[in-house]
Specification:
Layout: H1 6-13, H2 17-24, H3 32-44, H4 50-57, E1 63-69, H5 74-89, E2 93-99, H6 106-117, E3 121-125, E4 128-129, H7 134-140, E5 144-147, E6 150-151, E7 161-164, H8 167-180, E8 186-190, H9 198-212, E9 222-224, H10 229-242, E10 248-251, H11 254-266, E11 276-278, H12 284-288, E12 295-297, H13 300-315, E13 323-325, E14 329-331
Parallel strand pairs: 1-2, 1-3, 3-5, 4-6, 5-7, 7-13, 8-9, 8-10, 10-11
Antiparallel strand pairs: 12-14
């Protein structure tokens, strides 16, 4: 009998691969009838889970690393969980590393992580790789995927993969929407106009939208924070003092928008009656905030699935490196 894999078991059982994985790993959230059905098929086809089979075949590392830039982005935390689930279903173990020291190059962290843990592949969620050279990537000698991370445009695209969105375009679209609804005095809470990371791209989108509508840049409408509730709350307090005539604010992340909302409410202003508010990411909190937050929805599920499936294909020599740009969606809710 031909050896079967987890996808074959799922097809025969008429369930998803994730359900088979939960049964194999003894997760409780599977109906007993379904569990027994899958176990019967596993027994009938003499299926050995991939992770066991792979480790029997070779003693080298079977680990894929995920580096998450920072600790405050719930979007990355959710993506990590989805990527880990898919990789584990086909036998790979995920090793996680939070990179929080802004003084250390992201590429240096990546190289050390691969070397120390003897990784088979590396996924970077976020980070700045704009100073990376092609030879640095080649020396790592493992597949590397940059997801929602900045890349050096001169880097040889055949030596790494990337998955992401166009942050500048997405920010332009949401600020353009604010302009189209009549706002001209639009503030921004960002990571800095000269930031070379994703925050900088979103700031560029804000600037282009203002320029498109003939709105001049006003320094008093700029404030800087980081990706935390507190920093955005304090930034919004400063904005309200130096630009009291604001009618709208774009925060470059939902976390920052929610922090800003508290400062707006504390001075007795109403959202959106007095000040409209928009964020970016569409994290879970956004739809359940009061009022629900207008934002840019990142295709979280697709970003995660594309990253994981591409890594599997690269590890199994079924694919060359790819570069995938996914579309975003405006989510117009009650804050505007």
């Amino acid at each position: 009998m031909k050896a079967v894999n987890i996808k074959d078991i799922a097809r025969i059982a008429g369930v998803g691969v994730a359900t088979v994985s939960r049964v194999i790993n003894h997760h409780p959230d599977v109906k007993e009838e379904t569990r027994q059905h899958i176990l019967q098929i596993i027994e009938e086809y003499k299926y050995i889970p991939n992770n066991s089979a792979r480790y029997l075949k070779r003693s080298e590392s079977n680990d894929v690393g995920i580096i998450i830039k920072g600790i405050y982005n719930p979007l990355f935390a959710e993506m990590m969980q989805k990527i880990e689930r898919i990789l584990s279903q086909v036998g790979y173990t995920v090793m996680l590393h939070h990179h929080m020291d802004m003084a250390i190059r992201d590429m240096d962290v990546a190289q050390e992580f691969v070397k120390e843990k003897r990784l088979k592949g590396l996924i970077c969620l976020g980070g700045d790789f704009e100073d990376v050279q092609t030879e640095e990537v080649k020396r790592m000698n493992v597949p590397m995927i940059l997801t929602s991370a900045l890349q050096n445009e001169a880097l040889d695209r055949k030596v790494y993969s990337s998955v992401g969105i166009n942050n500048e375009v997405a920010a332009f679209e949401i600020v353009n929407y604010l302009c189209m609804t009549g706002h001209q005095k639009i503030g921004i809470i960002t990571t800095g106009e000269h930031d070379q990371s994703i925050g900088g791209r979103r700031t560029q989108g804000y600037m282009r939208a203002l320029s498109t509508h003939g709105i001049a840049k006003v320094d008093e409408r700029f404030e800087v924070g980081d990706y935390t509730f507190e920093s955005a709350y304090l930034a919004m307090k400063r904005l309200l003092v130096k630009a009291p005539d604001l009618t709208a604010v774009f925060a470059i992340s939902d976390i920052m928008a929610i922090g800003a909302a508290r400062a707006i409410h504390e001075v007795g202003k109403s959202i959106p009656k007095d000040i409209a508010l928009a964020g970016f990411d569409d994290i879970d909190y956004a739809a359940y905030y009061d009022p629900p937050l207008t934002t840019v929805k990142q295709p979280l599920e697709t970003l995660s699935e594309t990253t994981a499936e591409l890594m599997i294909a690269l590890l199994e020599d079924r694919s060359e490196h790819e570069h995938v740009m996914l579309p975003t969606t405006l989510k117009i809710r009650k804050t505007t």
